[in-house]
User: Fold dihydropyrimidinase from Colletotrichum noveboracense.
Amino acid sequence: MEVDLIIENATVVTASDVHARQDIVVRDGKILAVGQDLKSIFSAKTTIDAQHAFVMPGGVDSHVHLDQDNSPTGDNFETGTRSAIAGGTTTVIAFATQSRTQESIHPVVENYHGRATGKSYCDYGFHLILTNPTPTILRDELPHYVREGISSVKLYMTYEPLKLRDGEILDVMMATRALGMTTMVHAENSDMISWITARLAEEALTAPYYHAISRPSIAEDEAVYRVISLAELSDVPILI
Assistant:
């Protein structure tokens, strides 16, 4: 049988084992077989000798900021995924941000697909950052994107353009619970941070050192406890 590619003499690393002197047979972009001496069974258009090299599954980076609206990002989908591939990461999950004024997430997903399509060097997906979780979005639009393969949302408890009230977080949690989505939360007490930041600014204490001072651990502790309580009330797991 003729195939597209055979990688021969590889040391294959899986999640649990290391297998020496393995051949990997690829057809139509998929692994067809892994084993020893497979060149005696298959002929290939291309053969790569991987002696003294490790071959392992591509990595998945599930927290990636690329070409994002709500904050400056160092990379777009082209430069970021080129770096990913160079380091062995073959799938990235980036963040697609809804703005506060958007009443629908349809244009959000379409916009971010436009940024990635034809530019990404690897597979990609999205976490949806919800900043305006309207009943229509939660009832009608989220189920559509679950069917399209988006399985997670990200919520913020701080940052003015992004943060949600507790009641809005509960609304989202009830929707994600019903849909089996992962609920991710950035948990910090927004009022504590704003209060401390204002007082530091009054004293002209604005050097980078004071960024950490403006965000003491208690601001995170309180928000984490609060969102865990909301999750317990909703009976939904969360990723903080």
